[in-house]
Amino acid sequence: MPMNPNLQFARCAALAFGLSATLAAGAQTLPAGCDELPASTYPIRYDVSFEADIRPLLESEEQRCTVCHGSSGNLSLSFANARSNLLGAQERGVASAGDASANPILRVRPREPLASSLFLKLNCATPPFGGRMPLGLSPSPELQALVHDWIASGALMPDSPGGVRLFIGGFESIRRPSP
């Protein structure tokens, strides 16, 4: 099934905006070697759940994310800590490195996967800083697509403040009050 031309344009525009936002944020390296995730192969999901979809993949043996990023790796994704470690205070984002001046790219910037280091480090062979994740492996396209769609839909976590779910046209969309 061919992709809707409007959707193709929107994805291209989002990619261009995301890369320019990454550069404007002070990233030292332009992401390169990023995987394509065509909607014809990996349909866009509007119902991605962190607990049901994202966490199980991050914790899977295949992806090995918790080997480096468990509590000993300074990035606990436990139920109690995942939200603050990925999204930060008031869910506005946490700098990827401990020093925001050295690396201002946020781990997860809700609604902006191309400005979120979690997605860029999974999706690009050469992310803006550090290396591709998981270390020494190619991440599954399923994980990349789910992380992209989760971030694009607002990166809601259990008990996210202010999230209102609406059903529109058969799809669940997420609308949040403006800050």
UniProtKB/TrEMBL annotation:
<feature type="signal peptide">
    <location>
        <begin position="1"/>
        <end position="27"/>
    </location>
</feature>
<keyword id="KW-0732">Signal</keyword>
<protein>
    <recommendedName>
        <fullName>Cytochrome C Planctomycete-type domain-containing protein</fullName>
    </recommendedName>
</protein>
